[in-house]
Every structure is written in structure tokens, then in C-alpha cells.
Amino acid sequence: MASHPWFERLPKPIIIAHRGASLDAPENTIAAFELAAVQGAEAIELDVMVCATGEPVVIHDRKVDRTTNGKGEVGGLSLTDLKALDAGSWFDSQYAGERIPSLDDVFRQLRQDTVINIELKNDHAPLDGLPEAVAAVVRERGCQDRIWFSSFNPIALRKIRRLVPETPAGLLLIRGGWGRIIRMLAGWITRYDAVHPEYTDLTGDTVDAFQARGLPVFPYTINDPADLHRAVLMGVDGVITDDPIRAAGVIRSLADPSGPTDN
Ligand code: G3P
Ligand code: CA
Questions:
Q1: Which of 1, 40, 85, 220 has the fewest C-beta atoms lying within 10 Å of its C-beta?
Q2: According to the model, what pLDDT value does residue 260 have?
Q3: What is the structure's pLDDT at 218?
Q4: What is the rounded distance in angstroms from the CA atom of residue 229 to the CA atom of residue 246?
Q5: Would the CB of 172 count as within 6 Å of ligand 1?
Q6: Measured between alpha carbons, how far is 36 from 73 in angstroms, rounded to an integer?
Q7: What pLDDT digit, counting tens, does each position of 58-108 carry?
Q8: 258 C-alpha vs ligand 2 centroid, how far in Å?
Q9: For the segment 155-197, what is each residue's pLDDT rounded down to a tens digit?
Q10: What span, in angstroms and rounded, lies between the C-alpha atoms of 89 and 38?
């Protein structure tokens, strides 16, 4: 079965920087996204959730405590409150003053050809207004052709596929038996256009089986060279990694075994 035509434009395997170049810069910030491109990533992955005033903001945790100098739930803080926080100093003083970006900031501030995997992070509140808020920003900025969605939440995938039907959406899978059960349940709720499995769950056979169903495979989050090597040899469509430099080295060494080794 053919995959969604949107995926045909991507290099294979595509290097997707997880939360940006999050090994070397504070995750989910403009600095991390810009560094990802410098490090050889061909796409970035980011997490979005809605704040108290309804805008989609780019952050992984439900609370701001770990990645900023503030405290509290993202859903309880306004966009103005969130933008007042320092999202860089916790990582390194050289990033002091980095801000939590809104999704709109990302679309406006990054290069207009940046390919972005937007993870809808509302597993904790599956029926909140996140898909609607994200769809509104995507439509306003006209970014449908350079993004794809993903989520662990099949309800969010169902909604976003209806709101932005021209853009593909992948199902994120947790590892093990629960992952298989959730995938089965998700199949009753929505169709999806790709799978994003936890990488230790993958075998060559599962990759082949997904791809035979027209589902590109984008495992997360692979940083170890041996694991990257294994995933690329399995024929995955991309790797989600904190370390684009290492991923590029592994892909290069597999393409040209006689060249310098990067792993
Ligand atoms: O999109 C893959 C990966 O980001 C999912 O896990 O917790 O890092 O968002 P997490
Ligand atoms: Ca994520």
C-alpha cells in the first residue's frame, strides 16, 4: 500500500531533531531548533500544549518547573506569563533569556522551509482544545505542506486529521504490550498516516509490516550509535534523535563504509 504522498518529499532516513538539538541546547526553544539545522537535522520535532489563554505553546512537561525559572501548570499560565520565563538558564547560562515559544513564534522565526513534526501533547487532557488551536495557527501561517502531526492521543489525531486533512498525522506508540493494546484501540478511533514507535520495540519484521500497510516508521528517541545503526539497517523512514550530528555520521558511514567512521 502506498504511503501518504506528503512523505515522498522527505529524505530517507530523515534525521529529526527531538525537541530541537536538545543534547546541546535547551529543548523546545528557538535556539535548539536553529542549532538542529546547523547540526544536520532535516526536520525538527516539538511538543505543543495549550496555555490558559488558549494559544499552543512549545513545551514538553505539563509544568514549567523543569525547563524554566518558573513554577506551575502550563494550562494555568497565560501566554504573557509563560513568555516572561527564562527557558534557557536551567540548561546553560549561555542560553539565559531563551523563551518558551508559541507555535506561531516557531512558524514566524524559523526558516520557512523548516520541516516540523508537531507532537500534540494532550494525553493528560484528551478533549482540550489543542487540535483546534493548532489547526488555527497552521492555517493562518499556511504551513500545511511542511509539517506533520503526531500524538499518543488518538482522539487528538482524529480531530487534527479532520481539521487539517491535507497534512499527515502519525500515531506515537509506547513500548511493549500496552503499546500494542493502545494501537489496537487507536485503530477503532482514527486512521493515521505513520507510526512513531519507541525504538526498542522495533524489529526488521515490524518495520516491514508497517511499511507494507503504507505507514512510514519514525522511531523515537535514538541516540546511541549502535541503536542508530540498527534502526537505519532495518529501513526506518527516519530517526528521532537528540543528537543529529551522531545520526548523520551513522547514516553517512552506512552509505559509504569506506569513508571515515563517525561512531
Ligand atoms: O515524538 C517522539 C517523542 O518525542 C515522544 O516522547 O516524551 O519525548 O515527547 P516525548
Ligand atoms: Ca515529543
A1: 1
A2: 64
A3: 98
A4: 10
A5: yes
A6: 28
A7: 999 999 999 999 999 999 999 999 999 999 999 999 999 999 999 999 999
A8: 35
A9: 999 999 999 999 999 999 999 999 999 999 999 999 999 999 9
A10: 21
Residue 212: per-residue pLDDT: 97
Cα–Cα distance, 180 to 186 (Å, whole number)? 10
Cell of 89: 538558564
> From the CB of 39, is ligand 1 less than 6 Å away?
no
**Residue pointed to by grid coordinates 523548516:** 114
Catalytic amino acids?
18, 60
Per-residue 3-state assignment (H helix, E strand, C coil) for 151-199: ECCHHHHHHHHHHCCCCCEEEEECCHHHHHHHHHHHHHHCCCCEEEEEH
Q: Is 91 in the pocket of ligand 1 (CB under 6 A)?
A: no
Q: Which atom of ligand 1 is nearest to the CA of 45?
A: 1
Q: Where are the alpha helices (DSSP H) in 21-120?
A: 30-38, 79-83, 103-109
Residues 27 and 19 sit within 8 Å (Cβ to Cβ): yes
- Tell me if 148 sits within 8 A of 117, measured CB to CB: yes
Strand, helix or coil for residue 72: coil
Residue with the smallest CA separation from ligand 1 atom 10 is 60
Q: Which three cell numbers stand for residue 154?
A: 488518538
Residue 193 in contact with residue 170, Cβ under 8 Å? yes
Q: Taking a C-beta distance cutoff of 8 angstroms, is the pair 62, 72 a contact?
A: no
